[in-house]
Amino acid sequence: MKHRLQRVNEVLKRELSEIILREVSFEATLVTVQSVDITPDLKNAFVYVSAIGSDEQKRSVINVLNGHRQTLQHELTKRVVLKYTPQLHFKVDQSIERGDRVMEILDQIELPPDDDQS
């Protein structure tokens, strides 16, 4: 069952990426579907999107996606056959920002001097 959910997540990610690209326009912001996490009952799908821009622009992206939710779900129904059409829940994916922060911290760490150079 777990592998089936992973396959469904990947199909939803691919299809939603194409639908969003075609159906929704964003004001000067690059938006990417990073991952989809569907619940085991296939009734809800959490769509994690990354958006380049300020926090305000990211909130705007989520608002635009929520505003187009019905259209996106309808288009998804045409492309993906599932027992239920999942309710889409959009969230900002913070993983890129967290990764950048980790890299910043690692850059700030001073490495001890190498004693082998004497």
Strand order within the widest beta sheet:
1-2-3
Detail the poorly predicted runs.
Answer: none
Count of alpha/pi helices: 4
Number of domains: 1
Tell me the helix content: 40-55%
The CATH class name reads Alpha Beta
Largest sheet: 3 strands, mixed
Instruction: Give the beta-strand count.
Output: 3
**Oligomeric form:** single chain
Name the beta content range: 15-25%
Distance between the terminal alpha carbons, to the nearest Å?
59 Å
CATH topology-level name = GMP Synthetase, Chain A, domain 3
Computed over alpha carbons, the radius of gyration is 19 Å
User: What is the arithmetic mean of pLDDT?
Assistant: 86
User: Which CATH architecture?
Assistant: 2-Layer Sandwich
Structural class: alpha+beta
Q: Can you identify the CATH superfamily? A: K homology (KH) domain
Shape: flat
Q: H/E order of the elements?
A: HEEHHEH
Which structural traits does this protein have?
about 120 residues, alpha+beta
Give a quick rundown of the structure.
51% of the residues lie in helices and 19% in strands. By secondary structure, the chain is an alpha+beta fold.
Characterization of the model:
Helix 1 (2-23) crosses helix 3 (69-79). Strand 1 and strand 2 form a beta hairpin. By secondary structure, the protein is of the alpha+beta class. The protein has one domain (2-111): GMP Synthetase, Chain A, domain 3. Strands 1-2-3 form a 3-stranded mixed beta sheet. The chain is built from 4 helices and 3 strands. The longest helix has 22 residues, at 2-23. The chain has helices at 2-23, 55-67, 69-79, 95-108, and strands at 31-38, 44-51, 87-92.
